[in-house]
Design a protein that fits this description.
64% of the residues lie in helices and 5% in strands. It has 184 residues and is mainly alpha-helical. The protein has a two-stranded antiparallel ribbon. α1 (3-25) crosses α3 (59-86) and α6 (158-170) runs antiparallel to α7 (173-182). The two termini are 66 Å apart.
Length: 184
């Protein structure tokens, strides 16, 4: 960010903070949900901040938390306004992309809700068996599932065979490596 742009952004944020403070002090028509800050056509209301501060928070901490949130909100509004002005020539394309994205989000949420409402997740053994019998071609293995190890030992070497068997059956990785190395 250039120093000039940063200075303009700080000036705009300070101006908006001052306007927000003045706007918060003025009496509005909506006493239940007063406006805390305004930026351009946007309004930040008390109801937006209410859930931000946990119950039992010290007054100084809650004031600092709200102040930081309001400042960030104002800064974001300034940046959004600046972005809208800079993107004016690409606005139609941008609006179309936003509309498409919104529509896809809505459709996705709707489909998830339909699936949640109509999906029966309880299947009996008979249902599973009949599905398997009807779709056996889908259950063909493409990879091997068994891994085998073998070795050759003469019948005369029974003690060695017993030692190899004990190590093989122990299941320990070190014993398996030793068998592999000694008896390739």
């Amino acid at each position: 960010m250039t120093p000039q742009r940063a200075r303009r952004l700080r000036t705009a944020c300070a101006s908006l903070t001052a306007l927000a403070c003045l706007g918060a002090c003025s009496t509005g028509t909506d006493d239940d949900d007063p406006v805390v800050a305004r930026a351009y056509e946007q309004q930040l209301r008390w109801s937006d901040l209410r859930q931000l501060v946990p119950l039992g928070t010290e007054p100084e901490d809650s004031a600092a938390l709200v102040q930081a949130y309001v400042n960030n909100w104002l800064r974001q509004q300034v940046e959004l306004r600046h972005a809208e002005q800079q993107l004016a020539e690409n606005r139609k394309l941008f609006d179309a992309e936003l509309r498409d994205y919104r529509n896809s989000l809505l459709l996705h949420a709707y489909e998830e809700e339909l699936v949640r409402q109509h999906l029966d997740t309880a299947f009996s053994e008979g249902d599973i068996e009949s599905y398997y019998q009807a779709n056996t071609d889908r259950f063909v293995l493409r990879d091997d599932l068994v891994r085998a190890r073998w070795f050759r030992v003469t019948e005369n070497d029974r003690r060695a065979l017993k030692r190899i068997e004990d190590r093989f059956l122990s299941g320990k990785a070190d014993d398996m490596r030793e068998v592999e190395i000694q008896w390739p």
